[in-house]
Every structure is written in structure tokens, then in C-alpha cells.
UniProtKB/TrEMBL annotation:
Protein name, per record: Nucleoside diphosphatase
Lineage: Eukaryota, Fungi, Dikarya, Ascomycota, Pezizomycotina
Family matches, as InterPro entries: GDA1_CD39_NTPase (IPR000407)
Organism: Phyllosticta citribraziliensis
Composition skew (Polar residues), residue ranges: 604-619
CDD domains for this protein: ASKHA_NBD_YND1-like
Residue ranges of the region described as Disordered: 599-619, 660-696
Residue stretches spanning the membrane: 518-536
Family: Belongs to the GDA1/CD39 NTPase family.
Keywords: Hydrolase, Membrane, Transmembrane, Transmembrane helix
Length: 696
């Protein structure tokens, strides 16, 4: 039978508008994880791991294959599959699920083209790999912005510890999760769990999200998530330029305060050619004016059919910033850290310091900025395109955060001249964790905060056996049970070869609905009886032995007591008194124990054939060991021969042979003598009664 390994793997392809990135994740086999987990860890989600080299991105996006879907496999997908196959062990490939989840770019394709591309991807993956792909509709699909935001919320809280250690993230009012903000090129998302009052007031607007901890119990949260189409940085810039053109129709030169002074570009951001007669933008480098001109793009005045609303008339429950602390990824990170926070990877967002740095940068003449780029003043990743775009992006981000969503402007309080706000917030972050109203992040504990991680966390938790006591893992409308629109995390629990049987301990076998339950019960009863027998004292054990195992012989039989049940199974020619007198008549006070370390692991041996040593060290018998003593064969052979005659292997009865062996060893010659009081302390079994000297 094929045995599962220690690890489970999962593959996710993030098919965005500009390219596709493959992520590989790994987590401990759930059955093994249960046996190794501490009591606290049993109440936690599976622990997923990934590495930077397990991620690979290629360009362009799969949406470019809308008219040639047959080419998406060999020209795009194969390179990503090869990368995943280099990471997942060959023996685990057929047990490893693969998902391709497409976002913005594929949403724009016509329905027929979108379906053709997705069908071709699924067919190609099934034909050219053995990855687990049971349901094309579930594993290969275009996801909504809301779903993307929800997965991001799961990823952020998973990495921050809001799920596994709620007491360590108590924000007040019984709240322990973090809000999530994401901004790409086309859209922006927000996801958070409202406080109890708002959750009750807007219950129909929330998503019920369910996961499963290692002990098989459900973990449920009610989350609000929404997306703003057209509010990503690229689409916002497009709307901004359109507004400039509408405000000055027919004007060849359009002053743009969001571009550094001296920059001239076309309306689509390309370098302007002087001979062109098309309208173009001329940078003026006035960042304060840039903030004013980008504010109307928030569309705060749009009708709000379902109050309250934030941007563009989109309903959002009121945010309690006393308990809702947000982390922002993607553009929130790049725009705040690529230039202005280089060297402060985990620094909390300080509005005052950030705006000052942006204003200083955007006020520089373009030729001075170019010189700084050539000197790597802002790092190796900053080129002219990045520098040209950052002023608009920074103004848009500030407006969305503070005037749009309402994040408090941390750092605007009165400060002394020369005050280092950045250092203060950085130190504060180390003390408080992510407790500020907003914190831009890229990685947490060296793991990228990506919505793909959230998706895989949900899948991994769905593979934990709940014994049919927990509802399915996934999300849907805020309704009890499984609502009609429920989206499963990737499949129900299924036991794979080697998953559970090898990892069940005696407690699982005895007290769960395991196939081992009945044998486990008898094993438990046998253990209790044995423990009681060894703890009842030597005299009582002797009485029990004579009552149940020995019987008087019939008149005319040979003298002495015959073995009862024991005699039938093992030995008919050895009487009980001779067996008991071995210890009494031997030189009891003249023996030396081996080091106690040898008894610590009675079943460990470099040679599996050393059966006598294993038997002689059976648990419960602290057998003295004399390295120069050789056990005579006549008595032992007699026992073995007679046992063999009835089909019994005496070595399989560890307790009896251990006692026979140990008592026979005591009567042999001892090379050197040491008194009992001078002997080393013996490693005793808790079930072993002290040896007593008997006097006839």
C-alpha cells in the first residue's frame, strides 16, 4: 500500500492581469500533527510553510490568450507546472491539489473567451501532470474582488496570530482580529469584522466564514468585505487624467501637480515627443495641490442607498478604530516603503513623517531626481518610471486611507522641531504589535501576506477529520448551516493511504469511532489488570498465583504442586517451590547492577535479533546484569522445547521469560562482590514492588 509522507502540499496559481504567479505551500500531515500537537496547538489551524524559491512568476497574464486558448498550456502553464513539480516530491504529486484562481484581467474577457481559456487550462493540467484536480469548476475559476479580499483577510490574521492566539490580540470589546486593505492596479478591497453592535445591525451584509482547527472543531467569523472597482492606482490615474482633459479641452499642455517639475509625458504616461500635436502633461511638482486634485476621485458625494457608505456610494458598516486595526498590502506597501521608508521594513505608518518625505521628494526638479536614481539614493529597485508615478500614487493612497476610509492621521499631533516621528512609531510598533490604526506590510514572520495563503489555509483546514461533527469549511451568506451560495474551500475531508491508522494512539483507538475500538478496550482492561497485579504486593501476588495458576495434583500423581493454566501452556515439569526458591537460595547480596541508562529504553537495540536482551529488560522487571555470566541451557531449553510442543513461542511471553531469565542469572558466579548498600541506585519501574529477602 502506498504510504503518505510526513507533509501535505498545495499549489495555487494567482492569474493576475499582468502575469501568473505560482505558490507552493506545505503543512504537516493532519493525523501526525494531532499526535505531535500540544493541548493549545490542538485548538489552532494547520501550520503552513512556504519559501521564496517556491514562488515563480511569468508574464503576460492568461487573459492575453483569449483569442488563442490552445496556446495557454505549452506557452504559459507548462513553465509554472514544471516549477511546482521541482518542489513537490514525486510520491506526493497525486495527493497535491492544484488551483488556478484568476482575478482582474480575466474578469474583463468576454464570457466565451474566458470559458475557453479556463477549460483549456484544466484539460492541459490534467493531461500533463498528476496533480489532484477533481473538479474544474472549483479548482480553475475566476474569483470576485470580494473573494480575493476575504482570502486576504484570512492570510493577514493567520500570520498575525489573531486566530490561534486570540488572548494575545485582545483589542478590547471582545475583538481580536485585524482589518485588511488591498490595492492593486484596477481595484481596492477592504475586509474586517465589525464590532458586536455593528455586526448585529448589518448581519445581512456579512459573510460567514468557517475553518477547522486540528481537533476538528469549527472556527467561525462574520466578516464584511467589499471591493471598489476603478479605485486601484492605475484606474484612478486614468480617471484623473480624464478629469484634466475635461477641465481644459483643446489645451495642448496640461499642468500636472502630481508629476515632478520638468517631466513631460503623454496622457497615457509615455515620454512626450516634441513634434507631437497631441495634448500632453507637464509636471509642476506641487504635492499639496496634487492632494487637492485627487480628492474628488473618491466620489464621496455619490448617493448612498444603504447608509453608511465610504467611497462611491458603496455600503460599509461603521468602523470602530478602537478595535479595528488595519494592515495594508500591495500598493499600500510599495508606495509607502519602496522609496520613502527604505530600511524600515516593519515600521508603522506615520502620516506626518510620510507626507513630509513625499512632499520633499516630489518638489525636487526632475533632473535632480534622475541623478539620485543613478546614484541608487532610493535603492536598486527605483527606476525613472517608479519615481515618475510615485507622487500620484502617494497622494491617492493618503486620500483613500484618511478621507475615504477614515483611518486616523497618526503623527499629526504637535511635535517639537527635529522630532523623529518615524523612530517613535517604530519603537511603539515593537511594543504593541500591529495595534496602530494602519500598518503597511509585505511579509509577516518572513511569509508574504498574499490572498493565496488565505485560500490554502482554508483548504488545509478542510482536510482535517472532524468525525462528521463539524460543518463544511468555506464561506457564504451569514446564515446558519450551509447556505445555498456557500463556496467550499476545496473539498471535503478524505483519508489518504497511511494518513490515520499509523498515527492513532491508544487513546484514539479506545475512545473514538475507530476500527480498533474493541481491541483497544481489551488492551486497556489488560493493562489495568497487570498494573493492579504488580502493585498489590509480593505476598498477595503469590496468593493470587496459587489460586488461579496452580492446582494440587490428583492422588497418585507425582509429588509437588502442578502448574494449572500456566502449566498447560508453558511447562509441566517445573514445580512452583523450585521456581520461587531461585531468589531465596541464591547469593542475593552479591550482585552488581548495570548503569541505569541501559534500562531507560528497554526496546532500543542496534540489532533486532538480540531477542534475549529485549526480553530480559521487559518493563516492570529491573533485571540485574552480569556480563561474565552465561546462562545454562538445560533449564531454558527444557522450557522452550515443551512450549514448542504445544505451538507456543516462549520468547513471545516477555513477562514469564524475563522472570525465569532474571532469577536464573542470580545463582551464577559473580566476579566481584559489592554489598547491596553500596550498589548503584536502580532504575525502578513504578509498577515494581521492592525485592524482599525471604527466609524459609
Amino acid at each position: 500500500m502506498l504510504q503518505m509522507g510526513k507533509w501535505r502540499y498545495g499549489i495555487i496559481l494567482d492569474a493576475g492581469s499582468s502575469g501568473t504567479r505560482v505558490y507552493t505551500y506545505r503543512w504537516l500531515n493532519p493525523a501526525r500533527a494531532r499526535t505531535e500537537a500540544s493541548p493549545d496547538e490542538l485548538h489552532q489551524l494547520p501550520k503552513l510553510k512556504t519559501k521564496k524559491k517556491w514562488t515563480h512568476k511569468i508574464h503576460p497574464g492568461i487573459s492575453t490568450f483569449g483569442e488563442t486558448p490552445e496556446a495557454v498550456g505549452p506557452n504559459h502553464l507548462q513553465e509554472l507546472l514544471d516549477h511546482a513539480l521541482d518542489i513537490v516530491p514525486p510520491s506526493e504529486v497525486e495527493h497535491t491539489p492544484i488551483f488556478l484562481l484568476a482575478t482582474a484581467g480575466m474578469r474583463l474577457l468576454p464570457e466565451t473567451q474566458r470559458a475557453a481559456v479556463l477549460n483549456e487550462i484544466c484539460a492541459y493540467a490534467r493531461e500533463h501532470t498528476k496533480f489532484q484536480l477533481p473538479d474544474c469548476n472549483l479548482h480553475i475559476q475566476v474569483i470576485s474582488g470580494e473573494t480575493e479580499g476575504l482570502y486576504g483577510w484570512v492570510a493577514a490574521n493567520y500570520l498575525l496570530g489573531g486566530f490561534d492566539s486570540p488572548s494575545d490580540h485582545d483589542h478590547g470589546k471582545g475583538h481580536h482580529t485585524y482589518g485588511f486593505l488591498d490595492m492593486g492596479g484596477a481595484s481596492a478591497q477592504i475586509a474586517f469584522a465589525p464590532n458586536a453592535t455593528e455586526a448585529a445591525k448589518h448581519a445581512d451584509d456579512l459573510q460567514l466564514l468557517r475553518m477547522r482547527t486540528l481537533d476538528g472543531k469549527s472556527l467561525e467569523y462574520k466578516v464584511f468585505v467589499t471591493t471598489w472597482l476603478g479605485f486601484g492606482v492605475n484606474q484612478a490615474r486614468k480617471r484623473y487624467v480624464e478629469a484634466l482633459l475635461e477641465a481644459s479641452p483643446g489645451t495642448p499642455e496640461l499642468p500636472d501637480p502630481c508629476l515632478p517639475e520638468g517631466v513631460e509625458v503623454t496622457t497615457d504616461g509615455k515620454p512626450f515627443q516634441q513634434e507631437s500635436k497631441e495634448p500632453h502633461l507637464v509636471g509642476t511638482g506641487h504635492f499639496t495641490e496634487c492632494l487637492s486634485k485627487t480628492f474628488p476621485l473618491l466620489d464621496k458625494d455619490a448617493p448612498c442607498p444603504d447608509p453608511p457608505c465610504l467611497l462611491h456610494g458603496v455600503h460599509v458598516p461603521a468602523i470602530d478604530f478602537d478595535v479595528n486595526h488595519f494592515v495594508g498590502v500591495s500598493e499600500y506597501w510599495h508606495t509607502t516603503h519602496e522609496i520613502f521608508e527604505m530600511g524600515h521594513k516593519d515600521k508603522a505608518y506615520d502620516f506626518k513623517t510620510y507626507q513630509q518625505r513625499v512632499n520633499d521628494f516630489c518638489s525636487k526638479p526632475w533632473d535632480q531626481i534622475v541623478h539620485g536614481i543613478n546614484q541608487k539614493q532610493w535603492g536598486k529597485k527605483v527606476d525613472e518610471t517608479t519615481a515618475m508615478e510615485v507622487c500620484f500614487k502617494a497622494s491617492w493612497l493618503i486620500n483613500v486611507l484618511h478621507d475615504g476610509i477614515g483611518i486616523p492621521r497618526t503623527g499629526l499631533e504637535q511635535t517639537k522641531a527635529g522630532h523623529n516621528g518615524t523612530k517613535e512609531v517604530l519603537d511603539k510598533t515593537k511594543e504593541k504589535g500591529f495595534r496602530d490604526p494602519f500598518q503597511a506590510v509585505n511579509k509577516i514572520e518572513d511569509t508574504e501576506v498574499s490572498w493565496t495563503l488565505g485560500k490554502m489555509v482554508m483548504y488545509a483546514s478542510s482536510q482535517i477529520d472532524s468525525g462528521n461533527k463539524s460543518l463544511a469549511v468555506g464561506f457564504g451568506s451569514n446564515r446558519p448551516g450551509i447556505p445555498p451560495d456557500f463556496q467550499y474551500a476545496g473539498g471535503k475531508f478524505s483519508s489518504l493511504p497511511g494518513d490515520l491508522e499509523e498515527d492513532l494512539d491508544w487513546h484514539d483507538a479506545l475512545f473514538t469511532d475507530s476500527s480498533r475500538r474493541l481491541p483497544g478496550f481489551f488492551m486497556f482492561v489488560l493493562i489495568v489488570l497487570l498494573v493492579s497485579y504488580f502493585l498489590c504486593g509480593r505476598d498477595r501476588r503469590r496468593a493470587i498465583s496459587r489460586k488461579f495458576f496452580f492446582r494440587k495434583r490428583r492422588p497418585g500423581a507425582k509429588s509437588g504442586l502442578g502448574l494449572g493454566l500456566g502449566g498447560k501452556l508453558f511447562h509441566r515439569g517445573v514445580s512452583s517451590p523450585a521456581y520461587e526458591r531461585v531468589l531465596e537460595s541464591g547469593a542475593v547480596d552479591e550482585f552488581e547492577l548495570n548503569d541505569s541508562a541501559e534500562l531507560d529504553n528497554p526496546y532500543h537495540s542496534d540489532s533486532s535479533s538480540d531477542v534475549s536482551n529485549k526480553v530480559g529488560r521487559t518493563s516492570g522487571w529491573a533485571t540485574p546484569r552480569n556480563s561474565n555470566f552465561e546462562l545454562g541451557s538445560s533449564h531454558f531449553d527444557s522450557v522452550a522445547a515443551q512450549a514448542h510442543s504445544v505451538g507456543i513461542n516462549p520468547l513471545g511471553r516477555g513477562g514469564l521469560m524475563a522472570r525465569l531469565d532474571s532469577r536464573d542469572r542470580l545463582v551464577g558466579p559473580v566476579p566481584r562482590s559489592r554489598s547491596r548498600n553500596a550498589s548503584p541506585t536502580r532504575a525502578r519501574s513504578p509498577m515494581m514492588s521492592p525485592l524482599k529477602e525471604q527466609v524459609d
